[in-house]
Design a protein that fits this description.
This protein has about 325 residues and is α/β, with parallel strands linked by helices. The protein contains 14 helices and 11 strands.
């Protein structure tokens, strides 16, 4: 499958595994890259020496391109940049900050830069900053999200119409149907997070993986928009957040409730009651933990089968 994204990244399929904190270490990134997609190490939960270790292990596990996701609000972002340049990581996905800060510096070292946005406004600003591609992430996504709650189905065509750089669709995509829809809406590729959380190679705790598999429609909620929007599985901690809102809690109260280490406690350590469990709405479609390569190839096979059916079935002919 050749298009602008596969050519830009040197990959076989336009499928990118999202760089998720606590869930996407070198094992998952290398597995996805070896299967023909683009694997990403999520550096937002890593100390600089830990990222260094994961990059080294990923390079040893694959000879295919892989990327590092870098939240620009990370306090040691400059040290992560040093690690990325030192190890000649070919691609960086930046998020949660101004892409002007590091884009040119990374590109001067031969590194391609992709920035994550949730609106047309920031897509245009990112293109002006010189990024090589964009991830447009809709409201359905897990983890940190946009405050405007624009759905993927609406966001992708608006962003694709507004910019010239390649667009990667994210949010609510977990199978071949979602991939085909995103590409038909104008995207050049898809970024998939939640489905890869429930993979054998994901660094998420097995308790969290099993909870993702068990989560059904309506089991998640976008909340904490005053701090940073995040989609959470409804558990005991989420109930505390909901109660705080009912009681009229202020931002400082919400920050105190969130505290430190909630995401690690839930997703990495497996505390299903007091931990923060971030996942997308597409979790309602996930019913099994599988190897990452199997997930990727099932998505591609489904995509091809549905595309072929569209070309042959009467219901698509008007």
């Amino acid at each position: 499958m050749k298009n602008r994204i596969t050519t830009l990244f040197g990959i076989d399929y336009p499928i990118i595994q999202a760089g998720m904190i606590w869930c996407s270490g070198w094992e998952l990134a290398s597995a996805v890259s070896n299967a023909g997609g683009l694997g990403i190490i999520g550096s937002g939960s890593m100390y600089p020496e830990i990222l260094d270790e994961h990059v080294r292990k990923c390079k040893a596990a694959t000879n295919k391109p892989f990327a590092v996701n870098l939240p620009l609000i990370y306090p040691d972002a400059d040290k992560h940049i040093e690690t990325i340049i030192k190890h000649e990581v070919p691609i960086v996905f930046s998020s949660a900050g101004n892409p002007k800060t590091w884009t040119k510096h990374l590109q001067d070292h031969g590194i391609k830069v992709v920035h994550v946005v949730s609106s047309v406004k920031f897509a245009k600003k990112s293109e002006e900053a010189g990024v090589d591609a964009l991830v447009a992430e809709g409201f359905e996504a897990g983890g940190h999200n946009g405050i405007d709650e624009t759905t993927t189905f609406c966001l992708i065509p608006m962003v694709a119409d507004a910019v010239q750089v390649p667009v990667i669709a994210a949010g609510g995509i977990g199978d071949g149907r979602g991939m085909l829809a995103a590409l038909n809406l104008g995207a050049d590729a898809v970024q998939i997070g939640s489905r890869f959380v429930a993979s054998e190679e994901s660094s998420a705790h097995i308790n969290f993986k099993n909870t993702v598999v068990d989560t059904k429609e309506g089991g998640t909620k976008l909340t904490l928009k005053e701090i940073t929007p995040v989609r959470l599985i409804k558990n005991a901690f989420y109930d505390q957040v909901a109660e705080a809102y009912r009681n009229g809690s202020k931002v400082d109260d919400l920050k105190e409730l969130l505290g430190r280490g909630r995401a690690k406690k839930g997703m990495f350590e497996g505390d299903l009651d007091e931990g923060e469990l971030e996942i997308g709405q597409v979790s309602g479609l996930i019913d099994e933990i599988k190897p990452a390569s199997q997930i990727l190839h099932e998505i591609i096979d489904d995509y091809k089968a549905i595309l072929a059916a569209q070309n042959n079935e009467d219901k698509y002919n008007f």
